[in-house]
Structures are given as structure tokens and as C-alpha cells.
């Protein structure tokens, strides 16, 4: 977004251009400015990409708000700070963007910033009786000894607002009442695809409300990053969404390379793009296999794993890994491709094209699949954008949001491919987007595989990398949607703050919207088509 346009909308803004352009706004005017940007006629900032909690030390606590216009692709980053560390307050923007309902809870959980007029100020990852806020720079790491007692989940939550005289007042809101019939789906349920727990209230067989309980596999990756050098941070990206491991690490490498001014060799760009698309096929094959098994079918599960095993064999020869991929490095890739890589990739694509119709014959046209997926779990385009449901979930609702098309990176501006968009927004459309994307990924790879140029596969870099001061970001299209890296550097060899935009957090948050009124029997199929991966959410 142009600086002149920003200053005309926000005259009181302080603009920093060290790295990305960051617009600091007065905390008390944050909501007003956010609403103005949302309703701007030329560039309506209707997509809240992320809210990144921050501890700026003496400057105060606050957050970065990453906004984008789905109409023009224009982006802007707002910064709001409160200097009161004891009573840190910011206005909520959850009435403007629904995704803020869960992302402000994440900031509250880790930084202790209370969002005024937010209806549900509970922790979202940590225990509700946790002491302190672990992402603060002055957090005492010994303040929470290991506890083996059960956590009690509150059925009441707090909402805070300011009285006209400036004093703070709170009121209670009901999560579940005494008359609600609440069942737990997870955290051990195999079809939640990880340790996810959904407290689900029912009226007969119909779902009334879903309250996700997260954090069962939380490993504090973003906190760990603050004590790791930039090359060391790479290893942790593979443990986020492990079915997007190449793409996650690609995003972090791109962010560091952009900040450091490192030029990646063309050969490495080709290899990275091919690997990203093989990873996408790998993920979508697993999506197909698990969705069908969740719904009671077993034969298609073996189909998907048969072809996926061929991809893992190709990965293993070059990267040494099957599930965890640690191949991308700052400046390129870890090692050159295996001598048989190109031929095996071509053979695999030829084989996949010959059998993909079997997938559709056994499941896509099956009367049970049609009945259980079509018209079930409908997500409107407006809700998809407001909830931040990117990837195949958003595109199934008519929202063209593919980062590869709208913010190209690597070689995506040099290859021809279609952005798969459906408009029905139901579970079947979400399924079809991913099945069609398998073939588009094959098409992308076919354009690149015989044209990999000779040359270096990695640029030479210093063993210790120091980035200039500033905020730096990068975006990629992972198997599940937009994955962003937000990095703030203070000129050291370690990041001051390194945050990852979870692709799955908005998807889990959307379960309440998508499932309300549906049958309890539909919950697993709906969750399967949203395709979230829990370690990516918990981070």
C-alpha cells in the first residue's frame, strides 16, 4: 500500500520502513483505523492474515496486525503498543474480522494483553490456571512446575470494557450453560487427526456449539526460536505441519534470504518448486486416504498410500527423510538431487495420471460419499475470508486466495497452472479442490522437471548470519493454505521474534461456524475436509 495513501487515511501514523513497512498507530485509535481500512473503497482490507503478539521491552507490549485486500492483493501491517505492562489493554477487532476471536486469545495467552470488548478472554493453548505469560521477555521459566492434576475447563468467560470514566469493568459470558449437553470429541479420537479436543454441545443429534481446546502438543517453538541462530531455527519448521515440511522451511528460508540479501541460484529455485509440489501431492493423497477411512471406507485408503509411498521413496533418495523433510537451507538446498530423481518423478506422474480415475470411481461418484459430503458443512465466501480460512477450504467457497498466483515466489510466475476454485463451499467442494490440485501440481512439475538448469544448488553463506534491524515477512502456499513467517530482527544473530502463521488455527476455529445445525455424525467428515494438522496449530 502506497505511503501517501497510508498517511491520508492515518495522519497520526508513525511509519517504519526498516524491512517491511510497518505503520504504528495509537492504541486507542486502533479499532477506528482498522474499521476505516476495512471499509476503504479502493483497497478494502477484508482479510486479517494474522495478529502477532509482541513484547518490545521498554516500548511496551503490543501486536502487529497483518492486513490484506482480497480485491487488489494490497497489504499493510499495523503496529499497536501499550506501555502499561501490568494492565496491558488493546481494543478488540473481533467485530471486524471473525478470525480475531481466536487470534486475540492466542496473544492474551502468551503475552497477557487483554482485548477490550472481546467476548471470550480465556486462554486457548495453556491451562486456564497457568501462571504468567511465557512469550514475554521477562517470563520466569520456573514459575510453572510440572503438574499432574486435571485441568478444569471454565464454562464462564470474561469480557472487559472501559467505563466512560476510564476505569475497567468486567462481565461474565456463558460458554456452556447447565442445561447444555456437552460431549468431548478428542483429544484421543483418531479422526481429529491429532490431539485436538472439541467440546461439543448437542440438541438431540444436532450440533449447537463447538469449543476447541488446543495445546495438547504445544512445544513452544516460537519461544525456542528466540535463543537459536537463524540456521538453527530451520529444523523446527519441519515439526509444524509435517505434511507441508518443504513449504514451511521454504517460507522461513525466503524470509531470511530477503532480509540478508542472499540471492538463491536458479537451480535451487527449480528444485524447491518441484519439491513443494511433490509435497502438495503427498499431502493431498493422505487427505484422500484419511477422509475416506474416517467415513468408513478402507480400500481407497490403500490406494492413496500406495502412490504416496512412491513420493516418499523419491524424497528419501535426495533428502534422506520421509515424513520430516529438512532439505531447504538458507541460500538453496542441502544437497543436489539424486541422479535418478528426474526420471523417477516423471515415471511417478505418468503412473499417477493412469490411476487417478480409480480414486474417483471408488469414492467420488459413490452414493455414500455424495450423500455425506454434498450440501454438508457449508462455509460461505464471506465467512471464509472473515475467519481467515485460506487454502483449499477458502477456494472451495469461491475465494481465490492462492499465494502462488497472487503473491508469486520461486518459479510460480514462470509456470502455467490453474487456481482451482469452487463456489459451493460444502464438504464435497473442499474434497474436489484438493483432488483437482493433485493434477495441477503434476502439470507444474512437468513444466520444470526437464528444464532444471546446471549450476550451484546453494549460495555460499556465512556460518553466523546477522540480519539488519526491522520486520521481515514471507508467504507461501502450503498444502493447507497461506503460511506466513513474521520475523523481527534487532540486528543480532538470533531473531528477536519469529512467528509462524498457522494454516490450521483458522480452520479449527471455523468448525463452530461450519458445524452448527449439522448432525454429530457429520462432524468427522466436515473436519476431514477442512484438513487441519494439529502440530501446526499448537506450534
Number of domains: 2
CATH superfamily of the largest domain: Cytochrome-c3 Hydrogenase, chain B
Largest beta sheet: strand ordering: 1-2-5-4-3
Strand content: 15-25%
Number of helical runs? 17
The largest sheet, given as strand count, sense and whether it forms a barrel, is:
5 strands, mixed
Instruction: Name the CATH architecture of the largest domain.
Output: Orthogonal Bundle
- Indicate the CATH class of the largest domain: Mainly Alpha
CATH fold descriptor of the largest domain: Cytochrome-c3 Hydrogenase, chain B
Class per helix and strand makeup: alpha+beta
Alpha-carbon distance between the two ends: 30 Å
Any idea what the shape is?
globular
Count of strand segments:
17
| Mean pLDDT rating | 89
Radius of gyration in whole Å, from Cα? 23 Å
Amount of helix: 25-40%
Low-confidence regions: none
Catalytic activity: a quinone + NADH + 5 H(+)(in) = a quinol + NAD(+) + 4 H(+)(out)
Organism: Phocaeicola plebeius
Family: In the C-terminal section; belongs to the complex I 49 kDa subunit family. Belongs to the complex I 49 kDa subunit family.
EC number: 7.1.1.-
Describe this structure in words.
By secondary structure, this protein is α+β, with helices and mostly antiparallel strands. It has 2 domains: 1-138 and 152-174, NADH:ubiquinone oxidoreductase Nqo5 subunit (Beta Polymerase, domain 2, 2-Layer Sandwich); 219-536, Cytochrome-c3 Hydrogenase, chain B (Orthogonal Bundle), CATH 1.10.645. The chain is 37% helix and 18% strand. The protein is built from 17 helices and 17 strands. The strands form 6 sheets. The protein has a 5-stranded mixed β-sheet. Strands 10-11-12 form a 3-stranded antiparallel β-sheet. Helix 7 (266-294) packs antiparallel against helix 8 (299-319) and helix 15 (505-515) packs antiparallel against helix 16. NDH-1 is composed of 13 different subunits. Subunits NuoB, CD, E, F, and G constitute the peripheral sector of the complex. NDH-1 is composed of 14 different subunits. Subunits NuoB, C, D, E, F, and G constitute the peripheral sector of the complex.
Amino acid at each position: 500500500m502506497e505511503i501517501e495513501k497510508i498517511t491520508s487515511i492515518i495522519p497520526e501514523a508513525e511509519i517504519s520502513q526498516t524491512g517491511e513497512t510497518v505503520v504504528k498507530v495509537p492504541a486507542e485509535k486502533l479499532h477506528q483505523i482498522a474499521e476505516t481500512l476495512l471499509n476503504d473503497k479502493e483497497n478494502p482490507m477484508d482479510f486479517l492474515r494474522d495478529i502477532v503478539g509482541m513484547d518490545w521491552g521498554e516500548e511496551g507490549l503490543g501486536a502487529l496486525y497483518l492486513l490484506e485486500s482480497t480485491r487488489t492483493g494490497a497489504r499493510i501491517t499495523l503496529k499497536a503498543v501499550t506501555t502499561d505492562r501490568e494492565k496491558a489493554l488493546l481494543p478488540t477487532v473481533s467485530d471486524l474480522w471473525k478470525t480475531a476471536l481466536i487470534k486475540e486469545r492466542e496473544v492474551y495467552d502468551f503475552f497477557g494483553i487483554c482485548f477490550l470488548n472481546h467476548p471470550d478472554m480465556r486462554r486457548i493453548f495453556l491451562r486456564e490456571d497457568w501462571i504468567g505469560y511465557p512469550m514475554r521477555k521477562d517470563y520466569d521459566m520456573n514459575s510453572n512446575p510440572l503438574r499432574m492434576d486435571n485441568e478444569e475447563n471454565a464454562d464462564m468467560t470474561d469480557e472487559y470494557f472501559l467505563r466512560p470514566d476510564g476505569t475497567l469493568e468486567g462481565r461474565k459470558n456463558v460458554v456452556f450453560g447447565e442445561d447444555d449437553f456437552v460431549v468431548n470429541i478428542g483429544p484421543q479420537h483418531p479422526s481429529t487427526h491429532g490431539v485436538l479436543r472439541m467440546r461439543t454441545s448437542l440438541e438431540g443429534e444436532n450440533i449447537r456449539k463447538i469449543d476447541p481446546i488446543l495445546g495438547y502438543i504445544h512445544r513452544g517453538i516460537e519461544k525456542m526460536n528466540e535463543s537459536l541462530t537463524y540456521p538453527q531455527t530451520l529444523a523446527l519448521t519441519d515439526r509444524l505441519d509435517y505434511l507441508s515440511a518443504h513449504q514451511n522451511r521454504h517460507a522461513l528460508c525466503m524470509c531470511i534470504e530477503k532480509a540478508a540479501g542472499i540471492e538463491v541460484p536458479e537451480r535451487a529455485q527449480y528444485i524447491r518448486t518441484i519439491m513443494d509440489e511433490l509435497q502438495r501431492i503427498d499431502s493431498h493423497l493422505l487427505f484422500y486416504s484419511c477422509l475416506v477411512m474416517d467415513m468408513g471406507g478402507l480400500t481407497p485408503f490403500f490406494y492413496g498410500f500406495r502412490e504416496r509411498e512412491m513420493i516418499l521413496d523419491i524424497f528419501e533418495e535426495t533428502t534422506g527423510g520421509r515424513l520430516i523433510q529438512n532439505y531447504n537451507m538458507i541460500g538453496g538446498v542441502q544437497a543436489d538431487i539424486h541422479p535418478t530423481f528426474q526420471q523417477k518423478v516423471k515415471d511417478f506422474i505418468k503412473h499417477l495420471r493412469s490411476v487417478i480415475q480409480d480414486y474417483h470411481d471408488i469414492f467420488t461418484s459413490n452414493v455414500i460419499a455424495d450423500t455425506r459430503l454434498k450440501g454438508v458443512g457449508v462455509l460461505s465466501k464471506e465467512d471464509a475470508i472473515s475467519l481467515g480460512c485460506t487454502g483449499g477450504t477458502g477456494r472451495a467457497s469461491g475465494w481465490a486466495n492462492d499465494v502462488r498466483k497472487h503473491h508469486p515466489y520461486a518459479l510460480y510466475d514462470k509456470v502455467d497452472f490453474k487456481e482451482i476454485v469452487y463456489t459451493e463451499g460444502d464438504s464435497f467442494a473442499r474434497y474436489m479442490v484438493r483432488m483437482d490440485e493433485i493434477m495441477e501440481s503434476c502439470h507444474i512439475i512437468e513444466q520444470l522437471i526437464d528444464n532444471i538448469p546446471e549450476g550451484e544448488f546453494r549460495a555460499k553463506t556465512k556460518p553466523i548470519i546477522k540480519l539488519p534491524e526491522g520486520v521481515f515477512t514471507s508467504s507461501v502456499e502450503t498444502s493447507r493454505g497461506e503460511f506466513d513467517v513474521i520475523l523481527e530482527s534487532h540486528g543480532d544473530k538470533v531473531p528477536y521474534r519469529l512467528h509462524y502463521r498457522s494454516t490450521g488455527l483458522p480452520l479449527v476455529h471455523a468448525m463452530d461456524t461450519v458445524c452448527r445445525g449439522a448432525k454429530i455424525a457429520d462432524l468427522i467428515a466436515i473436519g476431514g475436509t477442512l484438513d487441519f494438522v494439529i502440530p501446526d496449530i499448537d506450534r
